[in-house]
Design brief:
Number of helices: 1
Strand content: 25-35%
Largest sheet: 3 strands, antiparallel
Mean pLDDT: 87
Radius of gyration: 25 Å
Shape: extended
Order of helices and strands: EEEH
């Protein structure tokens, strides 16, 4: 089998770059979480809080196996009035995720 060598005169492939964000809100973080381990109310009963967690997997110190640890990825704080908005959004997501109703006829 003959191994082909690349043609040095051939143009290099063009790699399309993802454009940089032009608006500040485009730079907002994307937060992934798997658990809410702590929640409560502060600010004289006016501020709700949630502590979001995820699992992080890293190589063990010995080089064999994987170590899994819980890490906090965000502390959310929002006014009590926003709870209704969050509930509404979560309920809409639940409806989207629900299996479509199927009709059965005999």
């Amino acid at each position: 089998m003959v191994k082909e060598t690349p043609d040095a005169s051939a143009p290099a492939p063009v790699v399309k770059k993802i454009p940089l964000a032009q608006v500040a809100s485009d730079l907002a973080p994307i937060i992934y979480f798997e658990n809410i381990d702590s929640h409560g109310i502060g600010g004289a009963g006016q501020i709700a809080n949630l502590t979001l967690e995820a699992l992080r997997h890293t190589s063990s110190d010995t080089g064999f196996g994987v170590t899994t640890e819980r890490v906090i990825v965000a502390h959310l704080r929002f006014p009590i009035a926003a709870i209704a908005i969050v509930e509404q959004a979560l309920n809409q997501i639940k409806l989207m995720a629900a299996p479509a109703a199927t009709s059965t006829s005999n």
